Amino acid sequence: MKFTEEQLNDWFEKFWSIYPRKVGKGKARQKFGKALEKVRDANEIRVGVELYKKQIEVLETELQFVAHPATWLFQERWADDYITERASVKPSFRVA
Questions:
Q1: Chain segment 10-63, per-residue pLDDT in tens
Q2: Which of 39, 40, 88, 93 is 20 to 30 A away from residue 48, measured at CA?
Q3: From residue 53, how far is each of 6, 40, 43, 49 by CA, in Å?
Q4: Cα(86)–Cα(72) distance, rounded to whole angstroms?
Q5: How far apart are CA 75 and CA 9, in angstroms?
Q6: Of residues 42, 43, 46, the one with CA closest to residue 19
Q7: Tens of pLDDT, residues 51-60
């Protein structure tokens, strides 16, 4: 999918505003442009970020373990499966 420079900048700024770790903005901008070439709809990336953020919240991931945005984009992680709910674990026995 082809985007104008203005569209690319707009979509990147939206991505940057929701991504949970703000490091390496220049490199992330480069990788974002490449990532857009791999999706049918730019919303795929946005939805992936939202799912990733939910997983971070559910698993209580420390910020140091959150992927840098350029890495996340380069690895096409918008297509990953994410844990978005905490599993309810029933004890296998009862303590009286």
A1: 999 999 999 999 999 999 999 999 999 999 888 999 999 999 999 999 999 999
A2: 88
A3: 26, 22, 15, 6
A4: 23
A5: 21
A6: 46
A7: 999 999 999 9
Q: Give the residue extent of every domain in the chain.
A: 5-79
In angstroms, the CA 56 to CA 32 distance is: 21
3-state secondary structure 22-87: CCCHHHHHHHHHHHHCCCCCCHHHHHHHHHHHHHHHHHCCCHHHCCCHHHHHHCCHHHCCCCCCCC
d(CA 92, CA 24): 46
Q: Structure pTM?
A: 0.85
Structure tokens at 72: 């996340």
- Assess contact for 72 and 52: CB atoms under 8 A: yes
